[in-house]
Design goal:
Structural class: mainly alpha
CATH class: Mainly Alpha
Order of helices and strands: HHHHHHHHHHHHHHHH
Largest sheet: none
CATH architecture: Up-down Bundle
Radius of gyration: 21 Å
Number of helices: 16
CATH topology: Growth Hormone, Chain: A
Strand content: under 5%
CATH superfamily: MFS general substrate transporter like domains
Shape: globular
Distance between the termini: 16 Å
Helix content: over 70%
């Protein structure tokens, strides 16, 4: 096993081809998250289009957000084994085409609410196996001591989308309308992501035409010897996970994290415009700035995860600190104070996303990563990602306060912290 102090380039003479993989995946994540997250930025304008009241915005907006995550979760669980059979490269090429088309159709059909919801369902189904396939690539391409960083690079795409999305998309929505924005995003996926995947993504190091033998040897020397035979029915593939205590504890942590992250991410733009009275045209900077800190968080926490091998413990402490910061951020006296506190909140909360998939890759055998991560990510996203926006939306609908809705996420942070500390005691990783 290689030393945990290995740099991003690996040992001397090992090569750097493997680092191209997560960089390309980061771009696909960036575009994919713009496609799924455009609803958050557009919601104030969508509410105007449909003439919704604040209570209706909470109810119907929560539905638009959550329906995606339900479909996304189902695809993670039931389509990931199919993606595992065809391989990451073919699967990624296929789903990029599908999610780009359904994003564009959301703009074309957006004036009719029911067809609009249907496009969100198919968008969720299309994006569902994205992370399972990327996890498969990470475990195939990186020795164990580099995986937090290997995962962390493409996870950064989420937060780059959160930063740049408002900067680029708010002006488009303001000038051309939210439906045109959907169509533009659909086109970008086809023009940018497809060629990059075709050129740079290969299922395993030995299938890559431009990798050196020394880099292949370096990667394979750092792999765990935990292999099982692939194949069999869906039940035979997931049965080992259902009897694994670490898997279920990790899943509970993932559910809570998704409820927290998506509850905050989905409602933050509407919180600033409708609760704090910020003009929509100024939304871009107050929503983007907090996520600048997320990138620094991923860099720091993924490095510490690889360095210390205490990934679950780092995430647990981070959740507990996030709980207190969420309360102070939601009650900030001025918009500037609120933005700064939300920035610190998101920075600390990155302790979990920075190490999440390295933890799962530790728990799962190599030939079951796509199926295992699909089951994990599907349930975590479907339950947590689906409930998070609804929880906040329900509190808003009941109290008329977006501040109260966001503050409910702090209690979930405390519970998540306890779960991750428990996981650390079980797996010591």
């Amino acid at each position: 096993m290689q030393s945990s102090s290995t740099t991003f380039g690996g040992g001397a003479g090992t090569g750097r081809v493997r680092w191209q993989i997560p960089l390309v995946l980061m771009i696909t994540v960036f575009i994919g998250y713009l496609d799924r997250g455009n609803i958050n930025l557009a919601l104030p304008k969508i509410a105007e289009t449909y003439g919704w009241t604040k209570a209706q915005t909470g109810e119907y907006g929560g539905l638009l957000m959550s329906i995606f995550y339900i479909a996304y979760g189902l695809a993670n669980i039931f389509i990931s084994p199919l993606g595992e059979r065809f391989g990451p490269r073919k699967s990624l090429l296929c789903i990029v085409v599908l999610w780009s088309v359904f994003t564009a159709l959301g703009g074309v059909l957006g004036l009719m609410f029911v067809p609009f919801i249907i496009t969100r369902v198919f968008l969720g189904l299309s994006e569902g196996i994205h992370f399972p396939m990327m996890n498969t690539l990470t475990k195939e391409w990186f020795p164990a001591n580099e995986r937090s960083r290997g995962n962390g690079i493409y996870v950064v795409g989420i937060f780059v989308a959160s930063i740049l999305g408002p900067i680029f998309l708010v002006p488009i929505v303001d000038v051309a309308g939210w439906r045109i924005m959907f169509v533009i995003l659909g086109g970008i996926g086809l023009v940018v992501s497809l060629p990059l995947i075709w050129r740079f993504i290969h299922d395993t190091p030995r299938k890559h035409p431009r990798i050196t033998p020394s880099e292949v040897s370096y990667i394979e020397a750092g792999m765990e010897r935990d292999e099982t035979a692939a194949g069999g029915s869906f039940w035979s593939q997931v049965k080992p996970f259902l009897s694994s205590l670490p898997f279920w504890v990790a899943l509970l942590g993932g559910i809570l994290n998704n409820a927290i992250a998506h509850g905050l991410l989905n409602w933050l733009p509407t919180y600033f415009t409708q609760e704090r009275g910020l003009p929509f045209s100024e939304l871009w900077y107050v929503v983007s700035l907090p996520y600048v800190f997320s990138i620094f968080g991923v860099i720091l926490w993924s490095y510490l995860g690889d360095r210390t091998n205490r990934r679950a413990l780092i995430a647990g402490i981070g959740f507990i600190v996030t709980a207190g910061l969420t309360y102070f951020a939601a009650t900030g006296a001025t918009i500037l104070v609120t933005v700064l506190l939300f920035s610190l909140t998101i920075f600390v909360n990155m302790t979990y996303p920075s190490n999440e998939f390295a933890i799962m890759q530790r728990i799962l055998p190599r030939n079951r990563v796509a199926t295992g991560v699909g089951l994990y990510n599907g349930l975590a996203m479907m339950i947590g990602g689906g409930l998070g926006p609804v929880i906040v939306g329900t509190v808003v609908s009941m109290t008329g306060s977006y501040t109260s809705g966001i503050m409910t996420l702090g209690a979930l942070c405390l519970l998540a912290g306890a779960v991750m500390i428990t996981l650390h005691r079980i797996i010591r990783y």
